[in-house]
Design goal:
With 380 residues, this protein is an alpha/beta fold. The protein contains 14 helices and 15 strands. The strands form two sheets. A nine-stranded mixed beta sheet has the order 14-13-12-11-7-10-9-8-15. Strands 3-2-1-4-5-6 form a six-stranded parallel beta sheet. The N terminus and C terminus are likely disordered.
Length: 380
């Protein structure tokens, strides 16, 4: 009997050891720092469900009002905050840093993080200029870091379904893509966010940058990284009283050898929307929202609607995605929606769109090698 009890105890100890040293327990939380908290999405960090996968070890911000609000809202200690980015990175030594400040400051975050071998995730878009995007790419390659760009539409199972239909040949040859993104306008958001979101330097533009980037990102991904031949854009101010420095309406046309994409970016939609329509020679698919898709693949049959399951973990949580990439347990596709190749082209498209809107002309993109040398798209 004693022998049996001894064996039972040993077996129980073994089972407890296996349980306690499993993947969740064996991995410590990924140490992450934050560079800037004026972006409206910065609140996601402390509003997400606690999973034990990440630990916030430092927050860089110079806006004292925003620091006070953030500290009070989430009951955070003063010691967590820094007014010097380099000092914070050296002191807390994070594995990754997340940028939630003005878009034109993303380059400064990468310049600080890359030489320290610290990975970076920024809010969309990657940069305000193609020149900055190319420098970010150069720094990432030189120091061997990952740089991710977070887009909400990366989380949508509906967009994944559209691409799978295209890859499987259900659409045939892709002819027309329509991407509609926007909302009623940013004027009602937190004042710190709006102050730079409506600044042409800090944000790189208005609705064209803020929502045009979604279409540029999705189309580049859908086309497996292929760059358009040309970019044509028209912008307008419906509310110059509210947005005196930037456009609140933008339409961007991307022309490929046999496909055209129309991106409608607006701060003037009646309601918030993020949807995509893809039309091919055999059928069409519409990603109406995050999980709803409408499709038709036979002219003799009516359109069908289906509701998909959300994307599995960790793909609906950008922080879990970032942690997984840093740990090396989440492998990204070459043309991943978060990845550098797609997002460098996204910024190149936005640069060309701004140039087109300003000049009133179609912008033809140079071959990538020549473009990389100048950092600019140019009208032929």
């Amino acid at each position: 009997m004693t022998t049996i009890r001894t064996i039972q105890r040993l077996l129980l100890c073994f089972m407890l050891c296996v349980f306690c040293t499993g993947p969740a327990a064996a991995q410590h939380p990924v140490r992450l720092a934050i560079a800037g908290i004026t972006h409206g999405h910065s609140d996601w960090i402390y509003n997400r469900k606690l999973k034990g996968d990440i630990e916030i070890v430092g927050i860089y911000e110079t806006n004292t009002d925003r620091i006070r609000e953030f500290r009070e809202r989430y009951q955070l200690p003063a010691a967590l905050f820094f007014s010097d980015l380099g000092r914070m990175l050296d002191q807390v030594k994070p594995a990754g840093v997340m940028a939630f400040g003005p878009i034109n400051e993303h380059i400064a975050v990468v310049r600080s993080a890359a030489p320290r071998r610290i990975h970076v995730m920024v809010e969309k878009p990657l940069a305000t200029s193609y020149k900055d995007a190319l420098e970010i790419e150069s720094l990432a390659k030189r120091y061997g870091i990952r740089v991710l760009t977070n887009f909400e539409t990366s989380w949508y199972s509906s967009n994944q379904y559209v691409k799978s239909c295209y890859q499987e040949g259900k659409l045939g040859r892709l002819r027309k893509v329509l991407v509609n993104d926007g909302h009623e306008g940013p004027w009602a958001m937190n004042r710190h966010f709006v102050s730079w979101l409506t600044d042409p330097v800090k944000n790189g533009g208005g609705a064209l940058t803020d929502f045009g980037c979604y279409g540029a990102n999705l189309m580049t991904w859908l086309m497996d990284g292929q760059r358009p031949l040309s970019v044509t854009a028209i912008t307008h101010q419906n509310r110059p009283d509210r947005y005196p420095k930037v456009e609140d309406e933008a339409t961007i046309i991307l022309q490929y050898p046999e496909t055209q994409c129309v991106i409608q970016a607006s701060w003037s939609w009646t309601f918030s929307r993020k949807d995509l329509e893809a039309y091919g020679t055999k059928g069409y698919v519409i990603a109406a929202d995050r999980t709803t898709v409408k499709s038709r693949f036979d002219g003799a049959l009516p359109e069908t609607t289906r509701v998909l399951e959300p994307r599995p973990a960790p793909f609906e949580d950008p922080f879990a995605v970032f942690a997984g990439v840093i740990r090396g347990v989440l492998k990204q596709e070459p043309d991943d929606l978060y990845g550098l190749p797609v997002n460098i082209t996204t910024v190149e498209i936005l640069d060309a769109a701004r140039a087109s809107a300003k000049s009133g002309k179609t912008i033809y993109l140079k071959p990538r090698l020549a473009a990389a040398q100048t950092g600019n798209a140019e009208n032929r």
